[in-house]
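Appendix B: complex inputs.
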Amino acid sequence: DAGVIQSPRHEVTEMGQEVTLRCKPISGHNSLFWYRQTMMRGLELLIYFNNNVPIDDSGMPEDRFSAKMPNASFSTLKIQPSEPRDSAVYFCASRAGTGQETQYFGPGTRLLVL
Amino acid sequence: GENVEQHPSTLSVQEGDSAVIKCTYSDSASNYFPWYKQELGKRPQLIIDIRSNVGEKKDQRIAVTLNKTAKHFSLHITETQPEDSAVYFCAAQGFVNEKLTFGTGTRLTIIP
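Resulting structure:
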């Protein structure tokens, strides 16, 4: 089992650029979560999907952030335009499904916006 | 929404001694309480969890207790070892709302 896969692992970009983060959940899992981790705000849930459908995006900071899940094996989190305050580690996690609570985290993408 | 508070924020323990981390939650409907360990630069990894129909669960040196009435749960690590040094997060998940709300983390340092 390869676990949750995220890419890129590190991203350095300049303010105003578009950033796309990618996630491949564990095969067979049908819930996917995007988190952001910073020293100031800790681990925050941004959005989650069940069966590729966004269920709760109340944690998405603003319209600059968008997430998609076109199929069961792929999701993207896009920031456009990026700002320095978006610098953080972004984690993707997946879960087998409703009633199976354990979330498995990916290795994260460390984003630095200059 | 759910609010999870975690204490202490830092904890230093002599190797071999026990460590206890405590969390409180606000939503009485929450029914799942995992604990994650995060080493520096790594992903959070589940170490133990407990559901609301259980009061205590143990896995080797790690145990978790849950008091539903008081809405608090605790992580207990016995016979601590240097590799236990990490940041530990508690979390709570509601029955209807499937989101995990995390505590702010406890940085545990084991002193050799």
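DSSP finds no helices and eleven strands in chain B.
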